[in-house]
Each structure stands twice: as structure tokens, then as C-alpha cells.
């Protein structure tokens, strides 16, 4: 009775883990073969630039954000879209812009009467930009109010577009206040995005700071009832035939939520958005005709959806196996059932310890990556359950502690 659930558990663990190992090996090859080529195509490229700033109740940070954008030293038009803020965000933004009339080449403030979520706001702003731009084309940079760009980031991102194949470029975060588990999570996923960018494209960019060709995005591809608008944009750009990449030298600074619970809430929200995107795009973006990018998308479907489901199957099989042991006793010594049960029991104990330590933000030395993977699978599983229950997280409550601590951030 022990052998069958043990075999199911072992098979489920293999299904969950093997594609990660394969992708890590491919990441090593892509980095080795393409790193020297992953540089901007120019140092003096310039195009008309529009900075898109979606906001909602950002009174604590809006003035510093506007100053940060103005300090970039790039002539740009600012389009600020407010999702029906209930605080002083719009009033403070208007006052700041009036006091600094030369901060931007031009500016528009769009006030939505009802909050519909960030993606809906982005769609409305992009349509407005398209209607009011005299000459089609140019670049659009989207950035969040709670992210401060390091000096020269906008100009750096712009240089990539001297390459006619580049459709979108994203910056990467220098996150302050992150726990050990969060830092390791970020490091692992950033390495993945960089390697994918080197060989072809990554489907995931950071909405805190990303830039794309206005002509490369099909706005109708964006789904306003889901979040992960940044990943939606990156995937749409790649499906139109351009590359979507990250620049490891372009950085912005943001602040991690203060408590472990708030960090998990943030990750679950982000995970749900990516899962819903991958479910919608797995047949189009994941086609073999998409080349390496199609393979990347198929693997991301596995990482975000199939792997947590397989790990859930493994966990239920482990509980069933232990239930059989409780009912019928420990398997006889020197039998296949005993060997399988002992081996899996040791593996389960190690996994539980690593998962718990990662969840508590503690390091486990060289095994920390396994703990971080298990903790990520838990959050991805919780995101799947949230979606299955019919709850969408595309409209979320802010992490107020992040805004309050932004005043201490140094860029």
C-alpha cells in the first residue's frame, strides 16, 4: 500500500523539478554565449518620449516621484493618469507641476471618475496618448509612483531602441528592506529574465520602469480585468515581432513591504496576474513557431502553474503514504516499500525544514535556493486557489508602510 503513493509522489516531484533544472542549464548557456552582445546599440540615440505615470492615492510620494523624473535630464512629455484617488494626489501633482513649469516638455493629467484597476488605467492612458500624439511612433516609458529611478536610467533605456528589433526594455529593482527569502527570490528571477533576454525575449518586465515603442504594442491585447500589465505589454510586444528584454545596468529603487505577511500578499497578487496571463497566452505566445521565446513561455507556464500543482499532488501522496503507515504499520525491513518510505521521509523532512526557514526569512546556506523555491510554490499555489475561488486581485490595497518609508530612500 505504501509503494503506489510513493511512486506517485516521486513522479510528481520529478515533474515539478526537472524543467527548472533544464532551464537553469539553458540559462548558463545563454549567459555564456550572449552576454558580450547584450549591450545597448547606441550611446546617443534619442526619440520622442512620453512618460506614463499611473497613480492612485500616492499623496505621500507623488512630489518626490515627479522630482525624480525631472532629474533624469531627458526631455519628455508626462501623462499622469489618476484612478479616482481619494487623497490629495492630484492636487499635489498639479501644484508641483505649476511650480516647476520646465520639468517636462509638456504634461497631461487624466482623472478617472471611478477606480477600475491599474491595467484599465494604463489602457485608457495609452489610447489617449495615441489620440493626442501628432506624429505616430516614439517611445513610452511606464513607471510607478513608489519607484525612484537611478540617475540616467531613461537615457540608458532609450539607447537600446537604436536596434530596430528591440520593442521593449525594462529596468531591474534595487529593493530596500527585503528579507533574505525575498532577496533570494528576486535574485533568482532576475537571473532568469536576463538570460532569457540575452537569447531572445523575456515575457516579464517590471512595470516600475519599462520602455517600449508605441508602434510595437497592440493595446487591444491588454486585459483590463487582470493585473500584471507590465508582463502583458512585454508579451504583446514580442508577439508583434519585436524583442522584449531587461537591461541589468538600468536600475530603480523601491521598498519591500515591512512584514512577511505583506510581502506574501504582494507576491500572491503578482503571481495571480502572471498565471492568468500565461493561461491566456500559452497557445499564441507558446507556439513552437515563436522559436526560443515559445519554449520560454511554455516553461513559464510550467513554473507558475504546472509545478505548484505537481507539488500539491506530491504533498497529498505523502500524506496518503503516511496514512497507510499509520494504519498498517511500518513496512518490513529490506523491502522496496521500506526503502522508498525511508528515502521519501528523509527528503520530506529536509524540504519542510528548508521551506519553513525560507518562510521565516532565514538562510539555509547553499540549500537556501531549494527553500526559496518551495516557498514560491506555496504562494503560486495560493494564487491558483484564489483564482479558482473567483477572486481577482487586479484592484488591491496599497502597502502604506512602503509609501511612508520612501522618504528615507536614497537614489
Describe what this molecule looks like in 3D.
- By secondary structure, the chain is α/β, with parallel strands linked by helices.
- It has a domain at 40-258: Spore Coat Polysaccharide Biosynthesis Protein SpsA, Chain A (Alpha-Beta Complex).
- 52% of the residues lie in helices and 13% in strands.
- The chain contains 12 helices and 8 strands.
- The chain has helices at 3-34, 62-70, 89-99, 118-132, 153-159, 180-199, 229-239, 260-281, 292-328, 336-359, 368-388, 400-405, and strands spanning 49-55, 77-82, 106-111, 139-143, 148-149, 166-176, 209-213, 243-255.
- Strands 3-2-1-4-7-6-8-5 form an 8-stranded mixed sheet, with helices on both faces.
- Strand 1 (49-55), helix 2 (62-70) and strand 2 (77-82) form a beta-alpha-beta unit.
- The longest helix is centred in the last third of the chain and has 37 residues, at 292-328.
- It is elongated and about 80 Å long.
- The mean pLDDT is 92.
CATH top level of the domain at 40-258 is Alpha Beta
Q: Note the overall shape.
A: elongated
Strand order of the largest sheet: 3-2-1-4-7-6-8-5
Query: Strand fraction band?
Result: 5-15%
Structural class: alpha/beta
Rounded mean pLDDT is 92
Q: Write the CATH fold name of the domain at 40-258.
A: Spore Coat Polysaccharide Biosynthesis Protein SpsA, Chain A
What is the CATH superfamily label of the domain at 40-258? Spore Coat Polysaccharide Biosynthesis Protein SpsA, Chain A
- Count the strands? 8
**How many H/I helical runs?**
12
Low-confidence stretches: none
The main pleated sheet reads as: 8 strands, mixed
CATH architecture of the domain at 40-258: Alpha-Beta Complex
User: Which range best describes the helical content: under 10%, 10-25%, 25-40%, 40-55%, 55-70% or over 70%?
Assistant: 40-55%
Euclidean distance between termini CA atoms: 60 Å
Task: State the order of secondary-structure elements, H for helix, E for strand.
Answer: HEHEHEHEEHEHEHEHHHHH
The Cα radius of gyration reads 23 Å
